[in-house]
Amino acid sequence: MSEAALPTSEARDAHKAEQCEKLARMAGQIADFFKSYPDAQAVPAIADHINQFWSRRMREDFLAAFTSDSQELQPLVRRALALIRPARGG
Fold first, then answer.
1. How many CA atoms are closer than 13 Å to the CA of 1, on its beta-carbon side?
2. Which residues, 6 or more positions from 85, have their beta carbon under 8 angstroms from its beta carbon?
3. Are the C-beta atoms of residues 19 and 60 closer than 8 Å to each other?
4. Cβ distance 76 to 35 under 8 Å?
5. Angle 82-87-90 (CA atoms, 0-180°, nearest 5)?
6. Whole-prediction pTM value?
7. CA dihedral over 70, 76, 46, 72, signed as positive or negative
8. Is 69 left (phi over 0), alpha (psi -120 to 50) or beta?
9. Considering Cα of 68, then 74, then 75, then 76, what sign does the dihedral take?
């Protein structure tokens, strides 16, 4: 592979940002489904869906991107963040 074919740091960062936006959008779609539920049911249901159906990598990327700064996320998703299980082991 030539050097020109290798992704630059800038390209990798742009791809990672795009992936984080996609995960935030997906989490928002889950929240949209549960928004008619009482918060006490919606918040754990959102986390449960993510824990069950998102891959380990998706959860890792999501938590890495939004644990320290979750302002981009919908309010229900922000509250569910603490219930999303991090990936275990190697």
1. 5
2. 51, 59
3. no
4. yes
5. 155
6. 0.84
7. negative
8. beta
9. negative
Tokens representing 63 are 């938590």
Under DSSP, the state recorded for 82 is: G
pLDDT tens digits along 29-70: 999 999 999 999 999 999 999 999 999 999 999 999 999 999
Alpha carbon distances (Å) from 65 to 6, 11, 74, 84:
24, 17, 14, 13
- Strand, coil or helix: 2: coil
**Residue with structure tokens 């996609």?**
22
User: The tokens of 68 are what?
Assistant: 């320290």
d(CA 51, CA 45): 10
